[in-house]
């Protein structure tokens, strides 16, 4: 894809467990373009977080990347040594976690944690001495200001527990952005937050994206968040991408029965008095999956042809979905 | 990743899963086997011991082990100052050590569980009272405390059990109280209250099964400790009275002949070492399997 | 007559005072988690209780059931004053008032089978003559909430989050209660499972003639299923009324900002955001006057000193704000 900052092809990440082999990410291809905000939607177990943990090289045992290529800004990340990968993490790609309280180190002050990232990655800093310390301090204050934390100078000395949930999420974003990464991976940045605070944090991410010209991969389960903040969206189900395209198209005219079902089952005031039609059943067990459409057991439009492997099909110029109903030929 | 944790194989209970982890730990299994062998030895002592442990024979006074000059293979570990067979006395001595270990731990754990549950669930003055008693008892050095009690009550099997259990219960009590404080806030406890369950039901049926794992682990670790304490008391002459064989008193008996007849003290000492070591390693395996939080 | 009537209900938590504090006569620190709440729930309706974390909505639900003993106030259920009942009468009352919890993992005892968990209310209240009858009733209610009969001897960890929530619902319903506090029953679930549980709760309500107090932080859910809505902020109800009224014409600035903050699939980018300054104040040290004034764009001097009382602004619609008479709306202002 043209102007893709991150391009992942046919990624497979597996977990070997006592109960069996779990293919958490099964042939996922995804591209994040420069300056865009890509939304990644899926329920728990869909593989949305594991996909990006793989990109960051953060998949822990018993998990491992089995195959696929991950190209970031022209470099193949899978070919990098752990040392080179560490240099990429934090400087070029940064990630924020869902739970800011456990993701921040409780024993270090906020200032120290921002400084840590700058120390590790920022080459523009003066080599050593008072000038370096001063530059780090200045940059830290600037970062806290950027994420909208007032009286940054005194706040730098405080510890994570002295901040509220929304503030902690901002601090984590500040740490992630300290080295002006080209890509921010935001893993459920607002799930733990209240709606009024959620709105603040999401707007903050959008503002900074515009200001710094970075790309954002926003992992979420909330289609509402995607609708309001993302340029493109990718829907994942049971380890596969089932639909991707411009947000307006995917939300406005979803092609995959799963996306359709998901949108139809969100309870909202507009549906008052009408019964909602939930998707019946549950996400299939990822152990020992048959090579068929993963959504088969829950799909209202399933037919025999769905029992064969289903590939992504074009549903529009930039809109693809993994369903045999697209394109008319049902064989 | 949480993925693995969310897909448990069907028909697997927590207990079975924990047991599988434990049996997968070979060293712990080996040690558990050694402990079981000691217990079998104690139970079937009359059939296993080659001689009567109290039969004295002054002709065999301080007879060396079978493989040394002057030894006899039928008295494989040699004889003590009264010519009694050391192997037979070790076999019988296991009865005392293991019996005291088990009874003290059973009594202490039962009291500790009840006290810990009451303190952790009822809170208020009950917690105040129990926690203060626990703090005070913890303030005394264990052995000196037991020696004092034994000196007051005089020696004897049941007195030892009392002297050791008197303080031992505070350890399970503290563990159970801590676990109860956490568990009582969980929603299933609240659900039971919302359904109209009594306090007794909640403590014994809802909370207890969920705090039992760490208690079992602690109990096994402490059992080794209690066996050492019993040996220490017997060594000091405050334990089981002669002629009943006890490892601690056997070590003490051999003290006077350490240079000319090292075997009198050494073999019962080794018995204590092996049993305590085996219990400790096995309980560490239990701890890893049942309560991952406890392992460092 | 209302099925449930709550009058002046408060739940305050006192900070612990050490010996030193007592000697020096230091005052207790008091957290007013729930303060002077008045509300009614009619038979057969769903009252939605909405608010952000820490606003006291869960505490209110538990205080109504006396799971947390209220500090002050009265709760009357079907003519009986619940707050005055002794232990035995309260136990009998528990059969009629139940609760469904938020966390499908914490709400089931991991060491008990589904049959034991769901059958517990029958045992406690002597509603089954023998084990066979108990199992029969458990199987019946489990089938009703969508569990398979073969699953009742399994342990909770063998189920997914959605199925566990069904088990919790079966436990609450097996004694045929009339009133249920639903404490964020779908917040911890995935979107497609949320819809299943909501559909189930609505179906059960119709079938069994239930009344719900539905606690949630999600306006979309409340807007979909509630008949009336109460909005809570820092332990107090700031606005209450029929759901259509609250959705179409929210009068309290907090309600307005709450509604504008919800990201919606339907009208992406349509509504303007009201940016609230700052975070929820600490309940340990709540602001004087109107509790919302620290974040309210409309706050005037009166708001900082006097607490506004609830005023009627429409049929069955009340709000507590000093500036109601001016008929201001944050939504209009920001759109202009």
Please explain how this structure is put together:
The complex is a heterotrimer of chains A (331), B (296) and C (336). By secondary structure, chain A is an alpha/beta fold. Chain A has helices at residues 48-55, 82-91, 100-103, 110-121, 129-146, 152-155, 165-177, 195-212, 223-229, 247-252, 257-264, and strands at residues 4-17, 20-33, 37-41, 63-72, 75-76, 93-96, 183-187, 215-220, 232-237, 240-246, 313-316, 319-321. In chain A, 33% of the residues lie in helices and 24% in strands. In chain A, helix 4 crosses helix 5. The longest helix of chain A is centred in the middle third of the chain and has 18 residues, at 129-146. With 296 residues, chain B is an all-alpha fold. Chain B has a single domain (21-47, 60-294), classed as MetI-like fold (Orthogonal Bundle), CATH 1.10.3720.10. Chain B is built from 13 helices and no strands. The longest helix of chain B is centred in the middle third of the chain and has 37 residues, at 86-122. The radius of gyration of chain B is 23 Å and the shape is elongated. With 336 residues, chain C is an alpha/beta fold. Chain C has a domain at 4-96 and 177-272: Rossmann fold (3-Layer(aba) Sandwich). Chain C is built from twelve helices and twelve strands. Chain C has helices spanning 19-24, 57-64, 87-94, 114-124, 131-144, 161-173, 191-208, 219-225, 243-248, 253-261, 301-305, 330-335, and strands at 4-14, 30-41, 46-50, 72-77, 80-81, 97-100, 179-183, 211-216, 228-233, 236-242, 311-314, 317-319. Chain C has an eight-stranded mixed β-sheet, with helices on both faces. In chain C, strands 2-1-4-5 form a four-stranded antiparallel β-sheet. At the A-C interface, helix 7, helix 8, helix 9, helix 10 and helix 11 of A face helix 6, helix 7, helix 8 and helix 10 of C.
